[in-house]
Amino acid sequence: MYSHSSSIYTPIQPLPFNRISQIVASSFQVIMVLEPATATQAAAPAMPQLKDELDIVIPTIRNLDFLEMWRPFFQPYHLIIVQDGDPSKTIKVPPGFDYELYNRNDINKILGPKASCISFKDSACRCFGYMVSKKKYIFTIDDDCFVAKDPSGKAVNALEQHIKNLLCPSTPFFFNTLYDPFRDGADFVRGYPFSLREGVPTAVSHGLWLNIPDYDAPTQLVKPLERNTRFVDAVLTIPKGTLFPMCGMNLAFDRDLIGPAMYFGLMGDGQPIGRYDDMWAGWCVKVICDHLGLGVKTGLPYIYHSKASNPFVNLRKEYKGIFWQEEIIPFFQQVVLPKDCTTVQKCYIELAKQVKEKLSKVDPYFDKLGDAMVTWIKAWDELNPPVLNGKAA
Ligand SMILES: O=c1ccn([C@@H]2O[C@H](COP(=O)(O)OP(=O)(O)O[C@H]3O[C@@H](CO)[C@H](O)[C@H]3O)[C@@H](O)[C@H]2O)c(=O)[nH]1
Ligand SMILES: [Mn+2]
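Above: the input record for the complex with manganese (II) ion. Below: its predicted structure, written as tokens.
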């Protein structure tokens, strides 16, 4: 509290401590005392946005009790649960949710031989949920992700923030130093070209994680106790020409704009690699978004990631990816898609061709992956026939 000798200052009334901590918390990035919000703290939004235009896709090998904490935010929405592993196992879903559930038998029945492109025993299986959905938007979340608290202690409605991110344009062609210009209380800064201020449609909203960060196995092994306690109150557009490591645990996207490129690859059972499903999808998605002039955002919302998977098991799944990616990234950085690739499907088929041509020398796996990318598009188009004037084309 300030006390001044001069008479021009009237002594400021001392602020109660909790008011000071609120002011501090609201104006700086704060190191947070970590625990997830409680179910009661998560209050249902007045009007759930995009209620009939968004599906929530959850890959799982567990019971879905985590949904209890999300109930206020998720209950109005339709869930697509992709059950991985043993199809004879029963996955318990808390009552009151509207959902469809697919296990491996269902996937094989629906896709027939094309089911070979859907991974087994890896969270990559989630992309089947993107394919069977009929909605414009998808939000996908892991079953060990809970409601986070922001620095003020308020429960974060991650779905609401993703929707906000997706409904606002992105700015990939020129970096706005005040972050998201479309956010309340922000705007384009001086020197930002007016010709670019309309922005472009946002295809992807990539959220982050408090508590257990999405580290690779070597980092997890070196820093087993590290927890992410930093809540950075920002949403950024990832600039055009820049790749990023897309994590699938807290991710939303516009299915009409970029859905066919959200293939999570061949991972898990019978494959030489795992835990690169979301990374592969993210690299494919970003080069196609850059080509088609679409935006990718990262930052808010946070979820509270509760479970650290076993770093030794993860190392075994990831290790080939750790050295392959030193060749994969330069490949994606040099990808050029022809002008006549005007749809996501055309871009993706062209990308599959280049994967087979240029990455098979790294490992024969990429030849198989290139074929699986084509199978994925065929299966996608079979389940989602292009519509012309409201009729199947
Ligand atoms: O064989 C499996 C294993 C898991 N799942 C489901 O997938 C998600 C993520 O699983 P989990 O939280 O156990 O693993 P993480 O290491 O935290 O996952 C991170 O790595 C990425 C793997 O690609 C993932 O997107 C990241 O979050 C859970 O819902 C499991 O139930 C599965 O379906 N099959
Ligand atoms: Mn997890």
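Notes for the reader.
The pocket of LCYJ2WEX (ligand 1) is lined by residues 59-62, 84, 121-123, 125, 142-144, 214, 247-249, 268, 275, 277-278, 307, 309 (CB under 6 Å).
Residues 1-12, 24-30 have pLDDT under 50 and may be disordered.
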